Prior knowledge:
This protein is α+β, with helices and mostly antiparallel strands. The protein has eleven helices and seven strands.
Amino acid sequence: MLLDLGGITLHYYLKSILNKLIFSSFFNSNKDKCKLSTYIKNIFGFKPKNIFLYELAFTHVSANAIAPNGKKINNERLEYLGDAILGAIIADYLYKKFPNADEGFLTESRSKIVSRAGLGKLAFKLGMDQHAIVSNCFSGSKSLSGDLFEAFIGAVYLDKGYEFTRKLIIDTIFGSLIDIEEVLEKENNFKSRLIEECQKEKTMLEFQLIKEDSHRNQKLFWVEIILDGKPTGIKACEYNIKAAEQLASEHYFIHQKENA
């Protein structure tokens, strides 16, 4: 019979300790652990209890990380959890903020906030990509940075609990670091806007599929904007071609604004 330690069996207690030892042998030095902990403290205002969860959250599947026991190490499970937690928290926030809004408005608003592209830009703004373990071919992808943000939320939930995570998202991230009202009001159909602009200027527009990758057993499509037959260098990737074209169009207007 297994010894019970306050509701936790000795078997699972020892297993958790073993997993930490295995994974810690793979992850960065104590100096890098301290660097990640300091980043979280400086940006989000709290100190992690279990830094291993955050190391895992910042390890993308493309890094092909393998523990000494042969187990794959990546943030996909945390990403799955974070996606669900983030969606629930944002849905609750919108439901209370807009008591007279219909389902269509609430659904569209939630989609704007938790869109892959939106979360990716948020992750970049918060500097998460600087701490990610990711292969070079995926480096710079806002879509995959969105995955990183979700995994981070999953790690916070496991480390600190639901109420702490809710306050972090609503009060800190969307309360101080990001203007949630701005996100809700922001235009999101950049492709239509680009098509109209090109028609007005009599410019031939093409969205060229330049590469296909795979992520989480799903295809990832890379699209580049071509104007009058010439590559612009403006690219984007997403899980379907239409979404990649939409994101590339947004990048086009950002590039245009920066070079005005």
